[in-house]
Design goal:
By secondary structure, this protein is mostly beta strands. The chain has one domain: hypothetical protein yedk fold (Alpha-Beta Complex), CATH 3.90.1680. It is about 10% helix and about 30% strand. Strands 1, 2, 3, 6, 7 and 8 form a six-stranded mixed sheet that branches. The chain has a three-stranded antiparallel sheet with strand order 4-5-9, with no helix packed on it. A hairpin with a 5-residue loop joins strand 6 and strand 7. The longest helix has 9 residues.
């Protein structure tokens, strides 16, 4: 799927540049996400972690689960038909306010769905909308970790596993 949700009613793909994240608080009301939310087009996005930049000095940090296992992030998906008739599937990651561990870095974080709640999120187990919305909360701070990484992560041309490694000689 393409990252950056393109709603079925969109005029073109460009809307996806501004819809790569969806705020949990406005899923049901923001036009770009409302249709996917109401249709139950929920997905899980598997990631080793993600990056966030500290505002004060633009230092990048890697963020992951403390046990370094894969994270499953809450997402919404939709499909869009191109003028030529091709179907494009796209998604957005849902964000919520940051937990106590990550708040010094950023005020938002992706919603992490724990494995015991996957069936609910994916619609394999029937739950009320209020139960789904209750899942859209900050993940436990103690179950997460972050560390400074090389500034090369800010350039899309750089793509290697060592970018996720902690800086050895970093000083705050």
């Amino acid at each position: 799927m393409r990252w950056g949700l393109v709603p079925s009613w969109a005029d073109d793909l460009k809307i996806g540049y501004s819809t790569f994240n969806a705020r949990a608080e406005s899923l049901a009301t923001r036009a770009a996400f409302r249709g996917a939310w109401q249709a139950g087009r929920r997905c899980l996005v598997v990631a080793d972690g993600y990056y966030e930049w500290r505002d004060s000095d633009k230092q990048p940090f890697a963020i992951a689960l403390a046990n370094r296992g894969p994270m499953t992030l809450a997402g919404l998906w939709d499909y869009w038909r191109t003028p030529a008739g091709e179907i494009i599937k796209s998604f957005a990651i849902i964000t919520t306010k940051a937990n106590d561990i990550l708040a010094p870095l950023h005020d938002r974080m992706p919603v992490v769905v724990p494995p015991d709640r996957w069936a609910e999120w994916l619609g394999e187990k029937a739950v009320a909308e209020s139960a789904l919305k209750a899942l859209l909360c900050p993940y436990l701070g103690g179950a997460m970790a972050f560390w400074p990484v090389d500034r090369r992560v800010g350039n899309v041309r750089n793509d290697s596993p060592d970018l996720f490694a902690p800086l050895v000689d970093w000083q705050n």
